[in-house]
Amino acid sequence: MDYSTWKLFIDAVERGSLSKVATAYGTSQPHVSRQIGELEKLCGGRLFQRTGRGVVLTELGLRIVPQVRAWLASTEQLANDIRSSAETPIGKVRIGSLSSTAHPLLTTLYRRLRERFPLIQLTIREGQGAQLETWLEDSSVDLAIVYRTNSTPRNGDIYLAETSTHLVSAVGDPLTAHPTVDFSVLHNLPLVTFCRPSSLRGYLEQMSIEQGIALNVALEADSISLQTHIVAEGGMYAVLAPFAIAVSSRFCPLRASKLINPTITRYVALAMARHGQLTPACRAVIQVIQEIARSGSEIVPELMP
């Protein structure tokens, strides 16, 4: 197991091109190809399929990527642990986050880590729920901030906060004139919501079946910014959590009412990669995130009436 060669393999996975890897490494594409070829001999099969645009993983390559990423991360952490003194956490921690929770939660995290654990380096990637789950599964991230609908944590999740779900409209819309609105109002209401797969959309569809109403998804968009700008123009509605609404309200006028009867409760969770072990740096980051969560407003902000 040669660290540098497997690191090159992962770089090729992420860049999708051997020529880009060669440029980054300051070498030639034939040299990179030979190294990948040696790995393929070692593995007993092709790791990449060459295409006109670069390379994509074969089935074998897809199977081994999570384990390789976990092994590289543990190797890097071992080197950091050897270099560190006084048990000071050191190394990179990769966090996936929904765009709506990135600020102020992760900006506060960065500030506190800089003060207390300056040798920890954060890498933050934003994505939607299904994408974050994929990153956790293939170990592209170590931790992720996600929403859950089950009241009981699973797979090692740490629940940070409980949050409600709101119907969002343009300012002045009569449907959101009051602090709360019945779930039944969603019946045939023109909605802009997330593309499938989406945990929120799936949950809403499940609840609508149970309540005997029909969801009218007029537009699919994974961008919360796009959703809320369309809603702000009037005539369309979104279903979002307080964090997304609070962030979007800075850029466009919105009004929101909490959905009740039933209340759509979700949980802000800290999830961990499915493979590999938590490093001391990861444990330190988890500790600080939990401290931030106890302050409350950094996780679920209060919405203005």
Summarize the structure.
The protein is 42% helix and 22% strand. The chain is of the alpha/beta class and 305 residues long. Strand 1 and strand 2 form a beta hairpin.
Principal-axis shape equals: globular
Please give the alpha-carbon distance between the first and last residues.
Answer: 59 Å
> What is the spatial order of strands in the main beta sheet?
4-3-5-13-6
Oligomer: single chain
SSE ordering: HHHEEHEHEHEEEEEHEHEHEEH
Structural class designation: alpha/beta
Biggest sheet character: 5 strands, mixed
How many beta-strand elements? Answer: 13
* Helical content (DSSP H or I, runs of 4+): 40-55%
Give your account of this protein's structure:
The protein is an alpha/beta fold and 305 residues long. It contains 10 helices and 13 strands. Helix 7 links the parallel strand 9 (190-193) and strand 10.
